[in-house]
Specification:
- There is one protein chain.
- By secondary structure, the protein is an alpha+beta fold.
- It has 2 domains: 6-51 and 105-225, 2-Layer Sandwich (60s Ribosomal Protein L30, Chain: A); 232-428, NADH Oxidase.
- It is built from 12 helices and 17 strands.
- β4 and β5 form a beta hairpin.
- GO terms for molecular function: coenzyme F420-0:L-glutamate ligase activity; coenzyme F420-1:gamma-L-glutamate ligase activity; GTP binding; metal ion binding; oxidoreductase activity.
- Residues 241-412 form the Nitroreductase domain.
Length: 432
Amino acid sequence: MSRSLEILPVLGLPEIEQGADLGELIVKGLELRSGDIVVVTSKIVSKAEGRLMQAEDREAAIDAEAVRLVARRGRTRIVQNRQGLVMAAAGVDASNTAPGTILLLPLDPDDSARAIRARIEELTGRQVGVLITDTFGRPWRSGLTDVAIGAAGVSILQDHRGQRDSHGNELALTITATADELAAAADLVKGKATGTPVAVVRGLPEAVTETDGTGISPMIRPIEDDMFRLGTSEAIRTAVTMRRTVREFSDQPVHPEAIRRAVAAAVTAPAPHHTMPWRFVLLESPEARTALLDAMLTAWRRDLRELDGWDEERIARRTARGDVLRNAPYLVVPCLVMDGSHAYPDARRAGAEREMFTVAIGAAVQNLLVTLTGEGYGTAWVSSTMFCRDTVREVLDLPAGWDPMGAVAVGRPATMPHDRAERAAEPFITVR
């Protein structure tokens, strides 16, 4: 069924000052009907609630309003505020306010919407919905639009899942952001510079609810469902610092394509002489992993017994450390190849040449680990293959020039790794 809507400006509103009765001013500016949706720009709500500050306090105000930094580019900050809204500068704004002052968002936009709605019903006896709106930029799209940041008496989301479209296809994912659509539509009448901060959407009474409702919170995507919760540089930095050594894995399988994506990222690491000194052996079958680990365990026990003189009890305690590899559902053995290296007749330069290539494989392994963290996998790099390279080459049938450089256990973590305290750079820096 098609419908038509009216979007009506509320004209004649005065300059709003602290303590202003917005509900009374709105009903004086337009005769409201039950089922109307009143859309109010947050700026006038902030003015009425006394959310005004001096402009020199802007950065401190942003700090106070923000609970999480999402992205930073120069002086511009995208942050999440206490209500969960992700926006530039926490909504702290110098537009539509006197020079030298700034406006903060309403302290609780949902509560502001409820108060305006209650006041309108008190004055008119009519049941309306109220939205508080603010201007947002959007990922992947140029231009600004108004969205709802507070709501009372409005069905903010319309869930179409389980319904069928005109071709009979069942809708599985469609949930319409009704509140944001209303906010954007109303802004076509309010505008940004016309001095018309309130508009009324008429013709959608089914979106107005008897109760105030939950407010805007159901529209805020939970962090765990947000695939793009950080800016680019912040995501890269976080991916690096999120990497943890995981020693207990669940029994969930590892997707081979995720490993191949990680290898593709690994081989972008810097390397000497424009070489590609990396090879990655993927142990995808339990049989291959068991054969390698059994042979490595035999070699390890032999070394501890014959070279270190340990007894069997002590050997058993030490070799139990290898269980992290044995219990992992997937293993990767990174190998260093010296193809393209320069030959030197003296030990000093020959050693430095190998160290250059070793640094390159280390960078590649780090790329691998960080990428797998981004894929949701846990990893543990274990050095053991470096202590029995001949054994590893024999069991895996590797060329003589491939030097195993540890092994990487991969799998879904059995438990979430603990947070790690942020490390300062200064203890590791010497400035000359």
